[in-house]
Design brief:
By secondary structure, this protein is α+β, with helices and mostly antiparallel strands. The protein contains one helix and 16 strands. It has a 16-stranded antiparallel beta sheet, with no helix packed on it. Strand 10 (148-154) and strand 11 form a beta hairpin. The termini are far apart. The relative contact order is 0.05.
């Protein structure tokens, strides 16, 4: 009877030792797994097509979007209106500022066709447009009625300046090309009335025309 009890006690002790070894091995494996998990680098890339940054009131104030293959960063006001945007659409990169409630703002775009700058004081107000490419540059000043009043252009072989009266559409234009300079006065009907030409190595002169574009006076004769 005593031997049977001793055998049972020995068997229980052996089982206990076996379970302790298994438990120790399990804890060691868990510790190794935890160390490996925490040693992995923290992910630094977030893959999504749109990110919205909210203010304290839960309103979207900055929008990062890449929908339709058009990356865009937009800053919004408290009413959700765009104030500033930077993006690239169909090969054109641009920066646009629209802080005015009446449509005033500015924009700058760059593409393989050149750079374009546009500034306007209001949606239907006066504005300035400038363009530059590899061959020419242009600056235009437009009045409130979107009528171009002053235009300046520079190309490889010529320079032009045009001033226009917005009410009568009469024009004064001056230009230089191929070593000669000219000044033209145009009436409200678009007919050239006075022409002045100066050229190196040649006789300079002035000519006046009537409303039918026929010469009526010239000097020298």
């Amino acid at each position: 009877m005593n031997r049977s009890i001793e055998e049972r006690v020995a068997s229980l002790e052996q089982s206990a030792r076996t379970w302790r070894r298994l438990a120790a091995a399990s804890l060691a494996a868990l510790a190794i797994f935890s160390l490996c998990a925490f040693s992995q680098p923290t992910p630094t890339t977030v893959s999504t097509s749109e990110i919205r940054l909210l203010d304290n009131e839960g309103r979207c104030r900055i929008l990062l979007s890449a929908r339709d293959n058009n990356p865009m960063v937009t800053v919004l006001d408290e009413d959700g209106k765009s104030q500033c945007s930077l993006g690239a659409i169909k090969g054109v990169s641009g920066l646009f500022l629209r802080p005015s409630d009446d449509g005033g703002g500015a924009g700058l775009t760059i593409s393989d066709k050149g750079s374009l700058l546009l500034m306007n004081g209001a949606e239907d107000g006066a504005y300035i447009a400038a363009r530059v490419d590899g061959e020419s540059s242009y600056l235009g000043l437009f009045g409130p009625d979107k009528v171009q009043q002053i235009a300046m252009g520079a190309e490889r072989s010529q320079t032009v300046l045009v001033c226009q009266d917005p009410s009568s559409k009469a024009q004064v234009s001056a230009g230089m090309r191929d070593g000669q300079a000219g000044l033209n006065l145009t009436g409200h009907k678009g007919t050239q009335l006075v022409s002045l030409l100066a050229k190196d190595g040649s006789t300079s002169g002035v000519m006046c025309f009537d409303d039918d574009a026929k010469p009526v006076w010239s000097a020298p004769k």
